[in-house]
């Protein structure tokens, strides 16, 4: 079980092998999907929603992201672990951004970080890459900018926005990012970008033309019922499985069916 590297992801793109990515935020889940053979685990700032119950990703802190990332690193042997840099930590002050990136890598053992944004943060990205930290860019829909856009709708539908997106992707490749996450953009645009650049793209709601796919683990496992965007495919119904198991357990406790003799000392 050799560790996946950023170089290997590039080779996978060259060889046309799609890259499988899921999010995780804890040791146990990371261990399960790592042993299942996932290529990359992203510790997303979606932890703000899935783990803490906040309405947006804006309120998760660097300390909290470090806590979740460390747990995932502890559970992972083979997959490449990428940690999200939360809102406000990479925003136009390269030395401050580098400090935050170093903390993330040093305190967690993550392999790489992911940063939302394009040309606006190019100096930050450059500084971090120069320090030897692998960076994945995150473009298209950027949930940390929800208050700027006011909607989680598909991005890059208009020509001007598509043009800026393509330019940002080219810029990020020139700066030396090892990959680009493309969130919720038209499939044709994502496919075009993926063909134009030599680093791998990972899509979420971006069609089949990207070099890999990512989904949020709670969504994939069907742990929630209230989030059903068009791009989501559920691979299990853990909401029902866990509900029934909990109800069964409650029932057994109430009726003294648990514990029985063999389960007692
Ligand atoms: O926070 C997150 O879960 C993400 C995904 C798109 C990977 O950024
Ligand atoms: Na994120």
Automatic annotation (TrEMBL):
Pathway: Cofactor biosynthesis; (R)-pantothenate biosynthesis; (R)-pantoate from 3-methyl-2-oxobutanoate: step 1/2
Protein encoded by which gene: panB
Cofactor section: Mg(2+)
GO MF entry, a single one: 3-methyl-2-oxobutanoate hydroxymethyltransferase activity
UniProt-listed InterPro entries: Pantoate_hydroxy_MeTrfase, Pyrv/PenolPyrv_kinase-like_dom, Pyrv_kinase-like_dom_sf
Protein name in UniProt: 3-methyl-2-oxobutanoate hydroxymethyltransferase
Function description: Catalyzes the reversible reaction in which hydroxymethyl group from 5,10-methylenetetrahydrofolate is transferred onto alpha-ketoisovalerate to form ketopantoate.
Reaction catalysed by this enzyme: (6R)-5,10-methylene-5,6,7,8-tetrahydrofolate + 3-methyl-2-oxobutanoate + H2O = 2-dehydropantoate + (6S)-5,6,7,8-tetrahydrofolate
Cofactor note: Binds 1 Mg(2+) ion per subunit.
Record keywords: Cytoplasm, Magnesium, Metal-binding, Pantothenate biosynthesis, Transferase
Active site per database record: 183
Record's subcellular location: Cytoplasm
